[in-house]
């Protein structure tokens, strides 16, 4: 159970055609022991299987997850700006 007196830690993951690294990165996120955590995971219009991995990911119930999925590649700055909009 999350301690409401502790600050929320926001993990922001940006992805563009990183299918080969994505599952390992998500496992590392799942292994975090701090509570509370929110995860903002962004796919910047990948053409590999990254988006499918992100959409299929079932994180632990203790995480708040925001998925930001760009239809076209917008670049790292624009994608990071979209991600930051979801950070609490």
Main attributes of the structure:
88 residues; alpha/beta; 3-stranded parallel β-sheet; 32% helix
Report on the structure:
The protein has a three-stranded parallel beta sheet, with helices on both faces. The longest helix is centred in the N-terminal third of the chain and has 12 residues, at 19-30. The chain has helices at residues 19-30, 50-56, 76-84; strands at residues 9-15, 37-44, 63-70. It starts with 8 loop residues before the first strand and ends with a helix. It is built from three helices and three strands; from the N terminus they run E-H-E-H-E-H. 32% of the residues lie in helices and 26% in strands. With 88 residues, it is of the alpha/beta class. The mean pLDDT is 93. 16% of the residues are buried.
Number of helices: 3
User: Approximately what portion of the residues adopt beta-strand conformation?
Assistant: 25-35%
Radius of gyration: 13 Å
Strand elements, count: 3
Q: What string, H for helix and E for strand, traces the elements in order?
A: EHEHEH
Mean pLDDT: 93
Structural class: alpha/beta
Overall geometric form: globular
Q: What share of the residues lie within helices?
A: 25-40%
Poorly predicted segments:
none
């Amino acid at each position: 159970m999350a301690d409401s007196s502790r600050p929320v830690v926001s993990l922001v993951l940006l992805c563009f055609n990183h299918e080969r690294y994505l599952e390992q990165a998500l496992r590392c996120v799942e292994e975090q022991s701090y509570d509370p955590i929110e995860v903002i995971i962004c796919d910047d219009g990948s053409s590999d299987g990254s988006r499918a991995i992100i959409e299929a990911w079932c994180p632990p119930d203790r995480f708040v997850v925001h998925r930001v999925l760009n239809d076209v590649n917008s670049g790292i700055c624009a994608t990071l700006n979209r991600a930051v909009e979801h950070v609490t």
